[in-house]
């Protein structure tokens, strides 16, 4: 009789244990369901957030070639190629008016030098080494040429640089070939920014005392 009672008690305990285990499994399944739903909700929120983000294209930018709108590119430096007579071009720019006869210039219509068209502020180089003998704004011996420089060279010749915007040398200065002596301008009798360049045989370059600069530059 006692053995039967013990057997019944064991069966009862086993049944209760199964019930408890089943309840625990159901609770675990419910928890996993809640976690799954929560994860799905989080993924949905993340996808919606990503969909609303602006698309930013990856772009490679070369900073070395960037120039701000306020910056002006530097004009080209004068060429140091020496001509057959030992002179160099005072700047790299196209010729807008050659040496020689030209209508509407001077009483006899003769152009005493070569005009190089260039933006205002372009640097001007000494065509040959020498001593600055004139650095002034108009007046003899540079009348009509506005701000101008004359350099006397060791060969006894003179080079004139007219219509400048700024002088960078003074009378008495010794300058080297290629040294920057001024900047292109539009001063004096001028109708646009350019450099008037002359080769003179004397300080006062009247008729008969000026030579074609291209014969010395080439």
From TrEMBL:
EC number per UniProt: 3.4.24.75
A GO term, aspect molecular function: metalloendopeptidase activity
Record's keyword terms, sorted: Hydrolase
Domain M23ase beta-sheet core: 110-201
Matches recorded under InterPro entries: Cell_wall_metabolism_enzyme, Dup_hybrid_motif, M23ase_b-sheet_dom
The name this protein goes by in its record: Peptidase M23 family protein
């Amino acid at each position: 009789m006692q053995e039967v009672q013990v057997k019944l008690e064991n069966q009862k305990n086993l049944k209760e244990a199964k019930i408890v285990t089943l309840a625990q499994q159901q609770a675990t399944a419910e928890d996993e369901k809640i976690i799954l739903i929560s994860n799905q909700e989080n993924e949905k929120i993340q996808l919606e957030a990503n969909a609303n983000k602006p698309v930013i294209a990856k772009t490679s930018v070369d900073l070395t070639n960037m120039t701000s709108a306020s910056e002006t590119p530097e004009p080209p430096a004068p060429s140091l190629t020496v001509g057959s007579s030992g002179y160099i071009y005072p700047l790299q720019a196209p010729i807008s008016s050659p040496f020689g006869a030209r209508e509407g210039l001077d009483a006899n219509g003769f152009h005493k030098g070569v005009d190089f068209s260039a933006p205002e502020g372009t640097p001007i180089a000494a065509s040959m080494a020498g001593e600055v003998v004139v650095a002034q704004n108009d007046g003899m011996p540079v009348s009509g040429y506005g701000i101008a420089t004359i350099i006397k060279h060791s060969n006894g010749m003179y080079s004139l640089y007219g219509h400048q915007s700024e002088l960078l040398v003074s009378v008495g200065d010794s300058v080297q070939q290629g040294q920057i002596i001024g900047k292109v301008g539009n001063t004096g009798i001028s109708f646009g920014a350019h450099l008037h360049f002359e080769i003179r045989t004397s300080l006062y370059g009247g008729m008969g005392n000026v030579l074609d600069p291209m014969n010395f530059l080439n």
